[in-house]
């Protein structure tokens, strides 16, 4: 398992950097189909989509009291996933991590 994680670590780390990083990670993993990288690509994609969907709702309020916790929440999720990718662990992000694995199960 450790060699699988090491082989997919670069793509896994890319998946959390930006939505463009997630797309880059997807194409990096397209040939090898590394399960470790695929796991983190699904997690990263889910976090980025959540960011955009919740960002639309948060933007309606136009209040830093609402937007600041939102950004902190997203940064914590990205940090949690990124640290897991760097350490070679497959930890689902809190709240929606298991759903991201189901929703994006076609990403291999």
DSSP strand tally: 0
Report helical residue fraction.
over 70%
Distance between the termini: 17 Å
Mean of residue pLDDT values: 93
> How would you classify the helix and strand content by structural class?
mainly alpha
Number of helices: 5
The sequence of SSEs as H and E is HHHHH
Q: What is the global morphology?
A: elongated
Quaternary state reads: single chain
**Structural Rg:** 14 Å
Low-pLDDT runs of 5+ residues are none
Strand content: under 5%
Largest sheet: none
Task: Describe the overall structure.
The structure is a single chain. It is built from 5 helices and no strands. With 108 residues, it is mainly α. The longest helix is centred in the middle third of the chain and has 27 residues, at 35-61. The radius of gyration is 14 Å and the shape is elongated. The two termini are 17 Å apart.
Q: What would a concise description of this structure say?
A:
75% of the residues lie in helices and 0% in strands. By secondary structure, the protein is mainly α. The longest helix has 27 residues, at 35-61.
List the helices and strands and how they pair.
Blueprint: H1 2-14, H2 19-28, H3 35-61, H4 64-87, H5 97-103
Properties at a glance:
5 helices, mainly alpha, 108 residues
């Amino acid at each position: 398992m450790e060699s699988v994680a090491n082989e997919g670590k670069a793509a896994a780390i890319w998946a959390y950097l930006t939505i463009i990083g997630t797309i880059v990670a997807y194409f990096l993993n397209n040939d090898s189909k590394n399960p470790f990288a695929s796991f983190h690509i699904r997690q990263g994609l889910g976090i980025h989509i959540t960011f955009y969907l919740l960002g639309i709702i948060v933007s309606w309020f136009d209040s830093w009291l609402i937007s600041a916790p939102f950004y902190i929440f997203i940064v914590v999720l990205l940090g949690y996933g990124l640290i897991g990718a760097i350490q070679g662990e497959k930890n689902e992000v809190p709240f929606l991590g298991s759903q991201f694995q189901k929703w994006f199960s076609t990403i291999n």
